[in-house]
Amino acid sequence: MLENTVAENVLGTIGTICWCIQLIPQIIRNYRVKDCEGVPPLMLFLWTASGVPFAIYFFATDGAIPLQIQPQLFTFFCLITWVQTLYYPPHKISRRRLIIFVTSFLLISVGLEVGFILWLRPLYARGIEWPMLIIGIIASILLAVGLIPPYFELAKRKGRVVGINFGFLLIDSAGAFFSILSIIFGTVDIMSIVLFGRKEKATDDSSSLESDPEHQEITVQDKSEVESKISISVNTK
Questions:
Q1: In angstroms, rounded to a whole number, what is the distance separating the alpha carbons of residues 106 and 132?
Q2: Which long-range contacts (CB under 8 A, 24 or more apart) does 136-139 make?
Q3: Per-position b or e across 155-175, b if 16+ CB within 10 A of its CB
Q4: Transmembrane stretches, by residue range (predicted)?
Q5: Which of 85, 127, 145, 157 is an S-S bond match for 36, by CB 3.0 to 4.6 Å?
Protein backbone atom coordinates (compact mmCIF):
# COMPACT_ATOMS: atom_id res chain seq x y z
CA MET A 1 0.00 0.00 0.00
CA LEU A 2 2.83 2.40 0.89
CA GLU A 3 4.58 1.54 -2.37
CA ASN A 4 1.41 2.36 -4.31
CA THR A 5 1.10 5.71 -2.54
CA VAL A 6 4.71 6.60 -3.37
CA ALA A 7 4.25 5.51 -6.99
CA GLU A 8 1.03 7.50 -7.25
CA ASN A 9 2.69 10.71 -6.07
CA VAL A 10 5.89 10.22 -8.08
CA LEU A 11 4.02 9.49 -11.33
CA GLY A 12 1.55 12.27 -10.66
CA THR A 13 4.42 14.68 -10.03
CA ILE A 14 6.10 13.69 -13.31
CA GLY A 15 2.82 14.19 -15.16
CA THR A 16 2.35 17.58 -13.49
CA ILE A 17 5.87 18.68 -14.42
CA CYS A 18 5.21 17.71 -18.04
CA TRP A 19 2.05 19.79 -18.03
CA CYS A 20 3.91 22.64 -16.32
CA ILE A 21 6.15 23.01 -19.35
CA GLN A 22 4.02 21.52 -22.15
CA LEU A 23 2.93 24.81 -23.68
CA ILE A 24 6.22 26.62 -23.17
CA PRO A 25 7.57 25.56 -26.61
CA GLN A 26 4.35 26.82 -28.24
CA ILE A 27 4.41 30.05 -26.23
CA ILE A 28 8.05 30.67 -27.17
CA ARG A 29 7.32 29.93 -30.81
CA ASN A 30 4.38 32.36 -30.83
CA TYR A 31 6.45 35.08 -29.15
CA ARG A 32 9.38 34.70 -31.54
CA VAL A 33 7.41 34.82 -34.78
CA LYS A 34 4.75 37.22 -33.44
CA ASP A 35 2.17 35.28 -35.42
CA CYS A 36 -0.41 32.63 -34.48
CA GLU A 37 -1.72 31.65 -37.88
CA GLY A 38 -2.95 28.07 -37.75
CA VAL A 39 -3.39 28.09 -33.95
CA PRO A 40 -7.15 28.52 -33.42
CA PRO A 41 -8.12 30.74 -30.47
CA LEU A 42 -11.30 28.72 -29.94
CA MET A 43 -9.26 25.59 -29.25
CA LEU A 44 -7.17 27.37 -26.61
CA PHE A 45 -10.25 28.97 -25.05
CA LEU A 46 -12.04 25.63 -24.73
CA TRP A 47 -8.91 24.01 -23.27
CA THR A 48 -8.55 26.91 -20.85
CA ALA A 49 -12.20 26.58 -19.86
CA SER A 50 -11.86 22.80 -19.41
CA GLY A 51 -9.31 23.43 -16.67
CA VAL A 52 -12.09 24.80 -14.45
CA PRO A 53 -14.19 21.60 -14.20
CA PHE A 54 -10.92 19.62 -14.10
CA ALA A 55 -9.90 21.58 -10.99
CA ILE A 56 -13.35 21.27 -9.43
CA TYR A 57 -13.34 17.51 -9.97
CA PHE A 58 -9.93 16.77 -8.46
CA PHE A 59 -10.29 19.17 -5.53
CA ALA A 60 -13.78 17.99 -4.64
CA THR A 61 -12.80 14.30 -4.88
CA ASP A 62 -9.62 14.95 -2.87
CA GLY A 63 -7.34 13.62 -5.61
CA ALA A 64 -3.58 13.39 -5.32
CA ILE A 65 -1.90 16.76 -4.74
CA PRO A 66 -0.15 16.78 -8.16
CA LEU A 67 -3.53 16.13 -9.80
CA GLN A 68 -5.03 19.07 -7.90
CA ILE A 69 -2.22 21.39 -8.97
CA GLN A 70 -2.13 20.30 -12.61
CA PRO A 71 -5.50 21.80 -13.73
CA GLN A 72 -4.44 25.20 -12.39
CA LEU A 73 -1.16 25.09 -14.29
CA PHE A 74 -2.88 23.72 -17.39
CA THR A 75 -5.38 26.59 -17.28
CA PHE A 76 -2.61 29.16 -16.70
CA PHE A 77 -0.50 28.13 -19.70
CA CYS A 78 -3.55 27.66 -21.93
CA LEU A 79 -4.65 31.15 -20.93
CA ILE A 80 -1.29 32.62 -21.97
CA THR A 81 -1.44 30.84 -25.32
CA TRP A 82 -5.05 31.89 -25.82
CA VAL A 83 -4.07 35.52 -25.17
CA GLN A 84 -1.27 35.20 -27.74
CA THR A 85 -3.68 33.89 -30.39
CA LEU A 86 -5.90 36.93 -29.82
CA TYR A 87 -3.09 39.50 -29.58
CA TYR A 88 -0.92 38.39 -32.51
CA PRO A 89 -2.02 38.15 -36.16
CA PRO A 90 -4.19 37.03 -37.81
CA HIS A 91 -6.77 38.14 -35.17
CA LYS A 92 -4.89 40.91 -33.37
CA ILE A 93 -7.67 42.39 -31.22
CA SER A 94 -7.19 45.58 -29.23
CA ARG A 95 -5.53 45.48 -25.81
CA ARG A 96 -8.66 46.89 -24.21
CA ARG A 97 -10.85 44.07 -25.50
CA LEU A 98 -8.17 41.55 -24.57
CA ILE A 99 -8.03 42.82 -20.99
CA ILE A 100 -11.83 42.66 -20.75
CA PHE A 101 -11.89 39.08 -22.05
CA VAL A 102 -9.15 37.83 -19.74
CA THR A 103 -10.42 39.63 -16.64
CA SER A 104 -13.97 38.37 -17.18
CA PHE A 105 -12.75 34.81 -17.70
CA LEU A 106 -10.61 34.86 -14.54
CA LEU A 107 -13.37 36.26 -12.35
CA ILE A 108 -15.93 33.74 -13.61
CA SER A 109 -13.47 30.83 -13.32
CA VAL A 110 -12.46 31.64 -9.74
CA GLY A 111 -16.09 32.06 -8.72
CA LEU A 112 -17.09 28.74 -10.28
CA GLU A 113 -14.19 26.81 -8.76
CA VAL A 114 -14.64 28.13 -5.24
CA GLY A 115 -18.42 27.80 -5.30
CA PHE A 116 -18.58 24.29 -6.74
CA ILE A 117 -15.72 22.91 -4.63
CA LEU A 118 -17.31 24.16 -1.40
CA TRP A 119 -20.67 22.74 -2.48
CA LEU A 120 -19.59 19.40 -3.96
CA ARG A 121 -16.84 18.26 -1.57
CA PRO A 122 -19.24 17.59 1.36
CA LEU A 123 -21.65 15.81 -1.01
CA TYR A 124 -18.88 13.58 -2.34
CA ALA A 125 -17.73 12.82 1.22
CA ARG A 126 -21.27 11.59 1.98
CA GLY A 127 -21.18 9.26 -1.00
CA ILE A 128 -23.21 11.41 -3.43
CA GLU A 129 -21.15 11.06 -6.58
CA TRP A 130 -23.45 11.94 -9.49
CA PRO A 131 -22.67 15.70 -9.39
CA MET A 132 -18.96 14.90 -9.77
CA LEU A 133 -19.80 12.66 -12.70
CA ILE A 134 -21.50 15.58 -14.44
CA ILE A 135 -18.50 17.86 -13.75
CA GLY A 136 -16.14 15.24 -15.15
CA ILE A 137 -18.25 14.82 -18.28
CA ILE A 138 -18.31 18.58 -18.84
CA ALA A 139 -14.51 18.74 -18.57
CA SER A 140 -14.14 15.87 -21.02
CA ILE A 141 -16.57 17.43 -23.51
CA LEU A 142 -14.82 20.82 -23.44
CA LEU A 143 -11.47 19.16 -24.00
CA ALA A 144 -12.79 17.01 -26.84
CA VAL A 145 -14.68 19.85 -28.57
CA GLY A 146 -11.46 21.87 -28.44
CA LEU A 147 -10.04 19.42 -30.97
CA ILE A 148 -12.51 20.40 -33.66
CA PRO A 149 -11.17 23.90 -34.62
CA PRO A 150 -7.72 22.62 -35.74
CA TYR A 151 -9.39 20.42 -38.34
CA PHE A 152 -11.06 23.49 -39.84
CA GLU A 153 -7.62 25.09 -40.02
CA LEU A 154 -6.35 22.02 -41.86
CA ALA A 155 -9.32 22.08 -44.22
CA LYS A 156 -8.73 25.74 -45.07
CA ARG A 157 -5.13 24.96 -46.05
CA LYS A 158 -5.85 21.63 -47.76
CA GLY A 159 -3.99 19.59 -45.15
CA ARG A 160 -1.15 21.99 -44.39
CA VAL A 161 -0.12 22.19 -40.73
CA VAL A 162 0.79 25.73 -39.74
CA GLY A 163 1.87 27.17 -36.41
CA ILE A 164 1.61 24.07 -34.17
CA ASN A 165 4.77 23.23 -32.23
CA PHE A 166 5.58 19.52 -32.10
CA GLY A 167 7.44 19.85 -28.77
CA PHE A 168 4.23 21.02 -27.11
CA LEU A 169 2.33 17.98 -28.41
CA LEU A 170 5.00 15.52 -27.29
CA ILE A 171 5.28 16.88 -23.74
CA ASP A 172 1.51 17.12 -23.42
CA SER A 173 1.10 13.46 -24.37
CA ALA A 174 3.75 12.42 -21.83
CA GLY A 175 1.90 14.37 -19.12
CA ALA A 176 -1.35 12.53 -19.84
CA PHE A 177 0.45 9.17 -19.81
CA PHE A 178 2.10 9.65 -16.40
CA SER A 179 -1.07 11.13 -14.89
CA ILE A 180 -3.07 8.07 -15.95
CA LEU A 181 -0.41 5.81 -14.40
CA SER A 182 -0.66 7.85 -11.20
CA ILE A 183 -4.40 7.22 -11.04
CA ILE A 184 -3.94 3.50 -11.73
CA PHE A 185 -1.37 3.10 -8.92
CA GLY A 186 -3.60 5.06 -6.55
CA THR A 187 -7.33 4.72 -6.07
CA VAL A 188 -8.62 3.76 -9.48
CA ASP A 189 -11.16 6.36 -10.55
CA ILE A 190 -12.73 5.57 -13.91
CA MET A 191 -13.77 9.18 -14.60
CA SER A 192 -10.25 10.42 -13.85
CA ILE A 193 -8.85 7.92 -16.34
CA VAL A 194 -11.44 9.01 -18.90
CA LEU A 195 -10.52 12.69 -18.39
CA PHE A 196 -6.80 12.17 -18.81
CA GLY A 197 -7.31 9.50 -21.47
CA ARG A 198 -9.36 11.95 -23.51
CA LYS A 199 -6.59 14.50 -23.19
CA GLU A 200 -3.94 12.01 -24.28
CA LYS A 201 -6.12 10.95 -27.23
CA ALA A 202 -6.51 14.61 -28.15
CA THR A 203 -2.76 15.11 -28.15
CA ASP A 204 -2.12 11.91 -30.09
CA ASP A 205 -4.55 13.04 -32.80
CA SER A 206 -2.75 16.36 -33.10
CA SER A 207 0.77 14.92 -32.85
CA SER A 208 0.06 12.66 -35.81
CA LEU A 209 0.29 15.86 -37.87
CA GLU A 210 3.83 16.99 -38.69
CA SER A 211 4.75 20.46 -37.44
CA ASP A 212 7.69 22.63 -36.46
CA PRO A 213 8.26 25.80 -34.44
CA GLU A 214 7.87 28.05 -37.47
CA HIS A 215 5.49 27.56 -40.41
CA GLN A 216 6.19 24.04 -41.58
CA GLU A 217 3.65 22.97 -44.16
CA ILE A 218 3.21 19.39 -45.34
CA THR A 219 0.68 18.55 -48.00
CA VAL A 220 -0.24 15.72 -50.26
CA GLN A 221 0.96 17.84 -53.17
CA ASP A 222 4.47 17.84 -51.71
CA LYS A 223 4.73 14.06 -52.04
CA SER A 224 6.62 14.08 -55.33
CA GLU A 225 9.07 16.68 -54.03
CA VAL A 226 9.71 14.68 -50.84
CA GLU A 227 10.26 11.48 -52.81
CA SER A 228 12.69 13.32 -55.08
CA LYS A 229 14.70 14.59 -52.10
CA ILE A 230 14.80 11.11 -50.58
CA SER A 231 16.07 9.69 -53.86
CA ILE A 232 18.80 12.32 -54.09
CA SER A 233 19.81 11.66 -50.45
CA VAL A 234 20.06 7.91 -51.04
CA ASN A 235 22.10 8.35 -54.21
CA THR A 236 24.46 10.74 -52.42
CA LYS A 237 25.11 8.20 -49.67
A1: 22
A2: 136/53, 136/57, 136/191, 136/192, 136/194, 136/195, 137/191, 138/53, 139/50, 139/52, 139/53, 139/54, 139/57, 139/195
A3: eeeeebbbbbbbbbbebbbbb
A4: 40-60, 72-89, 98-120, 132-152, 164-185
A5: 85
